[in-house]
Design a protein that fits this description.
With about 280 residues, the chain is α/β, with parallel strands linked by helices. It has one domain: NAD(P)-binding Rossmann-like Domain (Rossmann fold, 3-Layer(aba) Sandwich), CATH 3.40.50.720. About 40% of the residues lie in helices and about 15% in strands. It contains 9 helices and 7 strands. It has a 7-stranded parallel sheet, with helices on both faces. About 40% of the residues are buried.
Length: about 280
Amino acid sequence: MTETSQPLHHRRKHEQKIALITGASRGIGRCLALKLAAEGATIVVNYRRSAELADAVVDEARELGADGLAVQADVENPDDIVRLFGVVQSEFGRLDYFVNNAAASAFKKVLDLETHHLDRSYAMNVRPFVLGAQEAVKLMDRGGRIVAVSGYGSMRGFAAYAALGSYKAAVESFIRYMAIEFAGYGINVNGVNGGLIESDSLEYFYTMDGMAPMQSVLDTIPLKRPGTLDDMANVIEFLLSDNSSYITGQTIVVDGGMTVSAAPYYHQTSGPLNLPDRPAAD
Ligand SMILES: NC(=O)c1ccc[n+]([C@@H]2O[C@H](COP(=O)([O-])OP(=O)(O)OC[C@H]3O[C@@H](n4cnc5c(N)ncnc54)[C@H](OP(=O)(O)O)[C@@H]3O)[C@@H](O)[C@H]2O)c1
């Protein structure tokens, strides 16, 4: 049976797509990798240290009837990035999706940021996106999709996030430039900017010495809950899919309304300013 004569239900959404996701052994990256695998994509699961976790993601992808490969590479190291994309080229010959997801930074006040904190945060969060996109473009000979994962510290200031937030802002700026420069190659470039998302890194952030209680932040979210890994991965998957083919250069905010809200917050008001339960129908 030819591909075009296959019944529609046999074709999965990301069938025959090759997807490379940095930092896919855990968290948002892992969730996305499995979502794509469930829709038939071949996933390249990049990780730095967690070989067992990365292998487990590939095993799960195979159980979902997809192919996959775990590749160790420290994206802070430019040579590792070239090697990572070299593996994609030698194994698959091409690439459809590149998701720049891995991130790490020092969490300090501006006055406490030393040169090595700034240099490493740039090397970990901005440079891999640019170097990775340069490699990805060469392999996207049929067009493709690039998505970078950002966070709300790019738009708002909050405790300990100056370095990562500022470099995420740089990533969002690169998204716009890449979108324009790569449009002629059939490559759309977008971002997904997360609010407070349940993950290992969230646990770490809110247990840092001196950090405010997580509940005080959760109280400011209009949708009254943290985001899930699925909340993020669903939007990234949308930006990789054909359903978003006319969107490029954008960063979509996935934060339950947190960043459209500001002090004085409704939950801090009382009497006539407090939000009532749903009004009864007449
Ligand atoms: N969690 C949130 O609340 C939140 C909110 C907004 C945005 N984000 C963004 O979402 C993205 C993913 O965050 P997450 O919370 O899902 O992360 P996570 O659970 O902490 O997972 C981090 C992943 O990145 C990998 N990694 C770390 N350093 C690496 C390096 N140098 N080279 C290659 N891989 C590396 C880790 O690999 P190993 O397992 O080998 O260490 C792991 O797979 C980040 O860009 C983050 O800024 C997160």
